[in-house]
Design brief:
eight-stranded mixed beta sheet, 34% helix, TEII, globular, alpha/beta, Rossmann fold, single chain, Thioesterase, Pyochelin biosynthesis editing thioesterase PchC
Amino acid sequence: MSVDPVSQDRRVGAFRRLAPRPYARARVLLFPHGGGSASYYRSWASAPWDVEFLAVQYPGWEDRYSESMPSDLQELAAAASADLSAEWRSLPTVLFGHSMGAVTAYEAARWLEATGQRPAALIVSRHPAPELTRAGKVHLGSDGELVEELRRTEATHVDILDDASLVQAFLPVIRNDYRLDETYRSLPGPRLRTPVTVLYGDRDPEILPWEAEGWREATDDSCDVRTFEGGHFYLDEHRDPVVEFLTAHARRASEEAPVPWLSSP
């Protein structure tokens, strides 16, 4: 698996534009699962002209391979949010995170709210509520055990797992991703003022209905819980309706917002 070059016009701090949308009215930020990179969302680049999709590139992955890895998810979320803050106020923005990315997006929403930059919506996928996050020990296993877990969950591209040299290169950052998720604890603080939507597969053993409902305690705004047919891999099976759902949220957020590229000079 090669590391894709990323042109400068596709970079916004830690985020990578899937496809530039110079006339976008709203933006969707995508946070990958543990063991995944911004490239996981490459197939989501078909978003319409008025909504721009950007995926975060975690330190250690692809074009950030040489960067040091964060100590916890709060640090990861704060660094990504700070990178984006220069452009933040220009467009209404929806945050989306899958698996580990769900709580990373949640921590990013907390950071942004604390700095007066409230997201339009937070949409989380396949992860228990922050206060109900399960501890895990996968990151403490041997290299062989970690690789087997990655094969089972398909969290990392098979091209990496089938290449011994790539496994050797990427396993430390993958192990760190698992450590971040499995040791995550939500710190005390105010509840969000951002509306939350929870998505998950109805046959996924990694998140139970009451763990999804627990997200209602994370916000003082509305919280909607939606299920899809499927299990651990529901997001791959229902990519198109999820992209349409995110696009609709972003468009609603932009209806009353000023459009920067139509503003008078």
